[in-house]
Design brief:
There is one protein chain. The protein is built from one helix and ten strands. The protein is mainly beta. It has a single domain, classed as PCu(A)C copper chaperone (Immunoglobulin-like, Sandwich), CATH 2.60.40.1890. Strands 1, 2, 3, 4, 5, 6, 7, 8, 9 and 10 form a ten-stranded mixed beta sheet that branches. A hairpin with a 3-residue loop joins strand 9 and strand 10. The termini are far apart.
Length: 144
């Protein structure tokens, strides 16, 4: 009975989830790298705004939410407390803007592999996805 309840809760979560993740990806990292960035698009199907409040991955010690901002002539990254996802809207994490920073990665990311990621939303709960690792110089995800 316990297994049936667990299975039904998983099915219910995926069927009724109001948050959809599209095009999750990362770049391959060079040997010795300690950080990697994650990019994706969050689509909020709900009539209420939500907030991405955190993430985790077994591939890193921690995952932080960051933004890149221009200060004078210099681009700087800083950690933020999450990202607002508008009602019936979308929010894109992309190079040069908002992104996930995977800190103290356990090993370099290699092109072609998938990196597990769990996203935590204020209202939408947890959503599991995988970052597809692209080439080291990749600028954006490929559409399929």
């Amino acid at each position: 009975m316990r297994y049936l309840v667990a299975l039904l809760s998983l099915v219910a979560t995926s069927v009724f989830s109001q948050v959809e993740i599209q095009e999750p990806w990362s770049r391959a990292t060079p040997p010795g790298a300690k950080v990697a960035a994650g990019y994706l698009v969050v689509v909020n199907k709900s009539a209420s705004a939500d907030r991405l409040v955190g993430a985790s991955s077994p591939a890193a010690a921690r995952v932080e939410t960051h933004v890149t901002e221009k200060q004078g002539d210099v681009m700087r990254m800083r950690e933020v407390k999450g990202y607002e996802i508008p009602a019936k809207g979308r929010f894109e994490l992309k190079p040069g803007g908002a992104h996930l920073m995977l800190v103290d990665i356990k090993r370099p990311f290699k092109e072609g592999e998938m990196v597990p990621l769990v996203l935590r939303f204020q209202n939408g709960g947890e959503v599991k996805t995988e970052l597809q690792v692209r080439a080291l110089g990749a600028a954006k995800a490929h559409s399929h």
